[in-house]
Amino acid sequence: MYHHPLLILTINCYFVNIIYFKILSISVIIIYRNYGDFMKNIFSETYESLENYFLSIGDKKFRATQLYDFLYKKRIYNLNVMNNIPNTVKDKIHEDYDFSFIKILKKQEDIDVKKYLFELNDGNRIESVLMYHNYGISLCVSSQVGCNMGCKFCESGRLKKVRNLETYEIVEQLLLIEKDLGIHITHIVVMGIGEPFDNYDNVMNFIRIVTSNKGIDLGSRHITVSTCGIVPGIEKFMNDFNQVNLAISLHAPNDEIRNKIMPISKAYKLDELINVIKKYIKKTNRRVTFEYIMLDGVNDSLECAKELSSLLKGINCYVNLIPYNETENIQFKRSNKVQILAFYDILKKNGIAVTIRKEFGGKVDAACGQLRAKSY
Ligand code: SF4
Question: Does the beta carbon of 44 lie inside 6 Å of ligand 1?
Answer without folding.
Answer: no
